[in-house]
Amino acid sequence: MRLSPDQLIFWQHGFITLNATIVFTWGLMLVLAVGAKLITRKLTTEHKRSRWQNLLEIVVTGIANQIGEVGLKNPKKYLSFLGTLFLFVAAAALATVIPGYEPPTASLSTTVALALCVFAAVPLFGIGERGIGGYLKSYVEPTFIMLPFNLISEVSRTLALAVRLFGNMMSGATIIAILLTITPFVFPIVMTLLGLLTGMVQAYIFSILAAVYIAAATRKHKPSAKAEPVPAA
Amino acid sequence: MDNMTLIAVASIATAGFATSVGCIAPALGEGRAVATALTALAQQPDASATITRTLFVGLAMIESTAIYCFVVSMILIFANPFWKHVIAGAAEAVAK
Fold first, then answer.
1. Domain boundaries, chain A
2. pTM score, two decimals?
3. B59: nearest CA partner in chain A
4. Which tens digits make up the pLDDT trace of B63-93?
5. Hey, which residues 55-94 in chain A have their CB within 8 Å of chain B?
6. Is the reported ipTM for this assembly greater than 0.90?
7. Which of the two ends of chain B, N or C, has the fewest CB atoms closer than 10 A to its terminal CB?
8. Do B70 and A164 count as a contact with CB atoms less than 8 A apart?
9. What's the CATH code of the domain at B80?
């Protein structure tokens, strides 16, 4: 039984393989990029605008509001990265309605790649906000002994991001595949619905966790309040 | 029991054990989390957006431990390196 779309190979030449993960990722990229380009060709601020522009505005302002609520001061700066994460994982889950499609996030390669993007983005945004010294100093807070624990937590939460998304998407695909061989009529549809729901929740979780990590890295610490000297009576 | 049987029995038993035990604690934790979130919602309905969002984030973090156990079970059943090694050895022995 096939565990991941990595094993479904469409074309192979030497060591270059086109497996289902790559092809479906390209398909998603094409749909998202071409759709966005087509919709934003004629942006208008008039009262009467196309419904697609309305849809995109709802999506973009919704994501910006969520980023702002997490605690990031300037949501527009992080909107492109976090919004892309959310839209890619959500589109990968939603496209399951197309028969013959398997979500590329059901393969460990895709989820590890996304988690590595977050792993690289957190120091980049942190250094951009606080400077190299300020960002590196955050690793020795609250005391110097916490340095190895902070480093380990960076690596482990990246790994947790990857495995969480992979496990959720892979289990959805596997359960549908198993049920198709047992009760092929109604029950797989119910499980596909459940898979859609968990896919959307996992997309939200992935981007919110990335936003929380970036917020933790870019948070400027206020200087500790010193006690005011009591004015001599 | 020869090697092959031993590896098969150990893999199958561990796979079932991992998922069954590994789903108990996250379920208990999630139950407590949802119960507390409902209490908070009842006391402060205005903050329902924040509470709901934090609840979902917390549930995802708790769920990931169950997912780890599930992934280990899947690896033991479908991508078991010890089984592959033993099967390769048996195939060689038959080919000779």
1. 5-218
2. 0.84
3. A205
4. 888 888 888 898 888 888 888 888 888 889 8
5. 66, 69
6. no
7. C
8. no
9. 1.20.20.10
